[in-house]
Amino acid sequence: METMKAVRIYSYGGPEVLRYEDAPRPRPGDREILVRVHAAGVNPVDWKAREGYLKDLLPYRLPFTPGWDLSGVVEALGPGVVGFRMGDEVYSRPDLARDGAYADYIVIRASEAALKPRTLDHIHAAAMPLAALTAWQALFDAADLQEGQKVLIHGGAGGVGSFAVQLAKWKGAVVAATASAGNQEFLRDLGADQAVDYRGSPFEETVCGVDVVLDTIGGETQKRSWKTLRRGGIMVSTVNPPSDEDALLYGARKASVWVQSSARQLAELAALVDSGELRPFVETILPLAQARRAQEISQTGHARGKIVLRVAPPVTAVWATVAREAALA
After folding, report:
1. Inter-residue contact 145 to 169 (CB < 8 Å)
2. Sheet hosting strand 253-256, strand order edge to edge
3. Cis peptide leading into residue 241 (ω within 30°)
4. CB under 8 Å, gap of 24 or more: what pairs does 139-144 form?
5. CB of 5 within 8 A of CB of 78?
6. Is-contact 215 242, C-beta < 8 A?
7. Would you call 209 helix, strand, or coil by DSSP?
8. Distance CA 87, CA 74 (A)
9. What is 219-278 written as a DSSP string?
10. SS3 for 108?
């Protein structure tokens, strides 16, 4: 059996349960592609899965590999795959119920992948899929954000928030965003019209009449955010479903988002990147063997932009042959 390096979890718990080890290399099945992972994005869902918060929703078969953000190269095609060739550079947010991308290789459904942005390297491309799709689906699918509307984005310096600020500005919205004092200039660089220090004056005293609240924080932040909405506006949360009672009390609508894979939306996001409308921000790059440290940083909740694991691509017989042929051409 061919093996690869992977980070695997044998029991739920803290960062110490992550094990960097040899694991069986997967093979693509019907309408699946084998991707040689070059980089894997790190997201809160990774450590939540590790700690067992998702075991009722996504009953993983132990051991499992976390990581559901990736950029890499198509290594092999399963039967029935159309639209991809070996050697294509792709990025993806694969199925959260299957083994993830903290590994040299991953098998994903062809329908979950798109060609990565041409203007990005694999590190920055891997920072995009989950966070950018979440922002897109929250703002455009759930909230139906329109040009000229006003939106309040919580956690504007984070992974989802930094994409949401840019996408809302691209749409023509007026954007208010919250972050710490040290990230105010970063928010303005992203395009925020109003940068709010959440540790300063209460944001509900400085932001009002918004059409859309994008809540990436939950708890008291969500509760206080109802006061900023105009009647008929909408609260969209990526963390805790907003309450029916609060929506009724404030005369507003509510929605929650659980990000879905979408090759079509990934292709649209790639086009925005290549046209200069959208930029991913990577704060920390670590090798795959340091996945534990990456998740510890993620779990603080204070990372700016994204954390990415660099996955050293293994040399394979197929690509060694391709390299030799290219050298002789």
Report:
1. no
2. 194-197, 174-179, 150-153, 210-215, 229-237, 253-256
3. no
4. 139/164, 139/167, 139/168, 139/171, 139/212, 139/214, 139/236, 140/167, 140/171, 141/257, 142/234, 142/236, 142/255, 142/256, 142/257, 143/211, 143/212, 143/214, 143/234, 143/236, 143/255
5. no
6. yes
7. coil
8. 5
9. HHHHHHHGGGEEEEEEEEESSSPPPHHHHHHHT-EEEE------HHHHHHHHHHHHTTS-
10. strand
Go through the domains of the chain in sequence order and give each one's CATH number.
3-128+280-328 (3.90.180.10), 131-256 (3.40.50.720)
Residue 61 DSSP class: -
CB-count exposure of residue 175 (10 Å: 0-12, 13-18, 19+): buried
Residue 251 makes CB contacts below 8 A (sequence gap 6+) with: 231, 232
Hey, which residues does 18 pair with through a beta bridge?
9
Quote the crossing angle between the two packed helices 159-171 and 129-136, to the nearest 10°: 50
List Cα–Cα distances, 19 to 286, 290, 292, in angstroms.
16, 10, 9
Per-residue pLDDT of the chain (329 residues; tens, 9 = 90+): 799 999 999 999 999 999 999 999 999 999 999 999 999 999 999 999 999 998 888 878 899 999 999 999 999 999 999 999 999 999 999 999 999 999 999 999 999 999 999 999 999 999 999 999 999 999 999 999 999 999 999 999 999 999 999 999 999 999 999 999 999 999 999 999 999 998 888 999 999 999 999 999 999 999 999 999 999 999 999 998 999 999 999 999 999 999 999 999 999 999 999 999 999 999 999 999 999 999 999 998 777 789 999 997 655 444 444 444 444 44
Phi, psi of 278 (to 5 degrees): -140, 140
Is 42 exposed, middle or buried (CB count within 10 Å of its CB: 0-12, 13-18, 19+)?
buried
C-alpha–C-alpha distance, residues 107 and 109, integer Å: 7
Are the CB atoms for 73 and 35 separated by under 8 Å? yes
